[in-house]
Amino acid sequence: MTQTLPSAAPEALNRPVPTRYRSATAWAERAAAPLRLTAGPGARPTPAEVEALKAGLLRRDEPAAALVRAMRVDRSVSMKQIRAALDDGITADSPAPLKEFFEPLRERPDWVRDDLLERGARACRRLGVDGLRVLGLGSLLGGYRTGAALEPLVRTGRLTGEEGQRRLNETTAWWLAITAPGGLEPGAEGWNLSVHVRIMHAFVNDQLEQAPDWDWDFRGVPINQYDQASTLGVFSTSFLLHARLFGHYVSRRDSKAIMHLWSYVGWLMGVDDAWLPRTERIGRRLLYQFLAGDPAPDENSLLLADSLLSSIDAGEGSALTKRFERERTLSMATGLLGPGAMRDLGLPMRLPWFTGWRFLVNLPLSQVLARVPGTDELTVRRGNASIERECRRIFGDDGPSAHGVAPL
């Protein structure tokens, strides 16, 4: 199936195509080769899709940008009103810019199905603590491999070991919220956090667009549609691929439901409809095309990867415990991302013993349980129990909500 990508939409800025696109062709094709194999025939973009990819680097999330302008330029909306709209919804007296942003979000698109959202969330939770491991090392660390979308993170100062841990904690708290029962109902925690992050991105984007030293010629819009859709891909498409490397069986129905859930999350966060990964096949093709056009890893890749690993050293426990956790993490990262990615990230490779052990444990168990009637609730409870144990280790008695996304 061919996925139609957005055309060069009217809101694309009238600037030259950023030079980062296909700036490291040999590296990008090598890095993206496994994705091309999984995407199947027709993975390479058509000429029209190439133009859409280029235009995506010059396109921002316009509805969220309009809300930021209403606050910073027009002064017709206050930060207090934005926070109130997130927490309590809008009222008849809410300013027009607030209504224009929030009202469409509370009216779900016709394609969103509650049964698929519920099934997708349960399928994610069924992975248990392995889901959190894939999230941190497959999605988050793996996303640092390319220098495409990292500069905004660096500009916001999120590099030190402590900040690296905080970002991991925030991402974990967000993932737990959107996969909780009813977590994506309008006004629920997962829904609120997703919209919250979208607004935060718009504020950061506006700030960086005004920065005199922002490299427009190379990078394009700081937080652009291309990078937003690509990031969505590492939390959905590559998440499923990495879960299977841990030996988890994911049925076609569960795959469809997980991709449906993430498509809705992407829609909430302002990703173009045409770049939503509606199925795993579409998601693989999209993610291949994004990665094949990405720039090579840069100093930001090395700094952020080191920050994530350093957060383990800064954790609690004895020196021996920390050493074991670091070695286990490096083993998992090598198994999930591969030697090439570890080299790109400047991280030492280890034998993937932990990934192999999880594969040997999970593969027969998940295959058997998937075929035994009446075990669905059991496997979800089992997954949730392991997640809760890991959350107590990470967050302590406060729980993940106390470590949620930074306030607006």
UniProtKB/TrEMBL annotation:
Q: Which GO terms describe its molecular function?
A: oxidoreductase activity
ER-bound oxygenase mpaB/mpaB'/Rubber oxygenase catalytic domain location: 138-353
Which InterPro entries does this chain map to?
A: Lcp-like, MPAB/Lcp_cat_dom
List membrane-spanning regions: none
Give the protein's recorded name: ER-bound oxygenase mpaB/mpaB'/Rubber oxygenase catalytic domain-containing protein
Query: What organism does this protein naturally occur in?
Result: Nocardioides daedukensis
